[in-house]
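User: Just a sanity check before I run the rest of the batch. Below are the structure tokens for the first item. I only need the designed sequence back.
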């Protein structure tokens, strides 16, 4: 039995589905079902007894303690987080509460549970914390990619809150001996991605004949990681990672935002042409850049390949084609997550 927090979110849901394809070990999935948590993403597991869903917050120590005692997991994987930079700029307190205070309460609950385990179970237990490359700050165009020893320089309330959670996890290993592992990943993309993020937003807006908003000049650079590759990396770190260590997970795919938009448009031109014969790229609209926008993220993923033998299976070209195809084939899922609140959010943040 393993625990997954935030398992109704984008990465968490993909991890659960991929986990249950690999083995029959049961999963307890704890998610607060905030705006980005969507049980419809896990509808294929509705009658699967290996997946136990419980609505709850990682900061609810009474609930988490009860669940740990009841199910006795061998590992806790913490995906639960507020994760959108734009939302953190407009409402930072939620990010502090979930990512910092919530992680602290989760760690405390897990530490107490772990201390009560018998010696063999205690030795084999793992707490795996899923984090982001944004904790490292921003790179210039010619600087080396982020390694695990790069100093933390978070530039947004979101990345600062994740940096704080990383430090808490580290401290619980060094102070209390809690057997922790931390992963810092680059930008994920793939199925079930909430359509406020760049790639799904472009797909959804393109099909709806809306503007395709691009911040600033679109020259911001990100490393892109197909979500199923991320899931396989996490499984490998959980299986063989060295206690107390951090592993950077990247896709070796540095792309500018504007290149991403053009790539998605070209795939849509091929797979779902516009009725008027025009190109989707004609819908691109440059909008005011967001405050403090980091220029470049890049992950050096040599450590996880060297020590654990992991590397991504997808190139960006194969992964983005699978992603666009999934959104074309799953329009009902997209429609169901686009609530009125979501539309207001996009209107507020992406005004042409």
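Assistant: Here's the designed sequence for the first item:
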């Amino acid at each position: 039995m393993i625990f997954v927090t935030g398992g109704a979110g984008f990465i968490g849901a993909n991890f659960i589905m991929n986990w249950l394809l690999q083995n029959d070990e049961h999963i307890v999935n704890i998610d607060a079902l905030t705006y980005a948590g969507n049980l419809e993403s896990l509808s294929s597991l509705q009658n699967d007894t290996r997946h136990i869903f419980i609505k709850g917050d990682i900061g609810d120590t009474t609930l988490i303690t009860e669940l740990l005692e009841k199910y006795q997991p061998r590992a806790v994987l913490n995906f639960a987080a507020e994760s959108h930079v734009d939302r953190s700029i407009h409402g930072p307190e939620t990010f502090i509460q979930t990512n910092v205070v919530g992680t602290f309460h989760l760690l405390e609950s897990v530490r107490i549970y772990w201390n009560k385990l018998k010696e063999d179970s205690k030795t084999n237990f793992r707490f795996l914390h899923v984090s982001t490359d944004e904790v490292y700050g921003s790179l210039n165009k010619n600087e080396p990619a982020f390694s695990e020893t790069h100093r933390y320089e978070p530039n947004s309330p979101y990345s600062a809150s994740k940096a704080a959670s990383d430090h808490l996890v580290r401290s619980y290993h060094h102070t209390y001996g809690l057997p922790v592992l931390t992963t810092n990943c680059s930008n994920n993309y793939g199925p079930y991605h909430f359509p406020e993020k760049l790639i799904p937003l472009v797909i959804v807006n393109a099909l709806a004949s809306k503007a395709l908003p691009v911040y600033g000049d679109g020259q911001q650079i990100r490393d892109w990681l197909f979500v199923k590759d991320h899931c396989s990396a996490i499984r490998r770190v959980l299986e063989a990672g060295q206690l107390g260590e951090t592993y950077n997970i990247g896709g070796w795919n540095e792309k500018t935002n504007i290149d991403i938009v053009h790539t998605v448009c070209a795939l849509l031109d091929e797979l779902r042409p516009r009725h008027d014969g025009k190109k989707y790229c004609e819908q691109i609209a440059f909008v005011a850049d967001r405050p403090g926008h980091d220029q470049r993220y890049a992950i050096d993923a040599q450590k996880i390949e060297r020590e654990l033998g992991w590397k991504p299976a997808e190139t960006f070209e194969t992964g983005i084609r699978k992603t666009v195809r999934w959104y074309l084939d799953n329009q009902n899922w997209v429609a169901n997550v686009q609530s009125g609140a979501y539309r207001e959010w996009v209107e507020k943040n992406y005004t042409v």
